[in-house]
Amino acid sequence: MRVYKVVKCPRCGFLQLTTASRSVRCFGCGLSWSPEPDSILFSSRDLEKARSFLLKLKRGEGVEFKKASEAD
Ligand SMILES: [Zn+2]
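Above are the sequence and the zinc ion SMILES. Below is the predicted complex in structure-token form.
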């Protein structure tokens, strides 16, 4: 059974969706790394749920996420 995981690259912080359990290739920096519990932000057998979680993360909704400085 496939499990879709939202993972965060330990090197560049790139967020992506993967079904891999042993080795993930980062689309951001090209690093191959092994997902550990700390770097798996979400997992589900439902692709749509995993995808919508990823989209929310990328939009910075409901999670701690780097925000652009508002002071100028
Ligand atoms: Zn990366």
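DSSP finds one helix and five strands in the chain.
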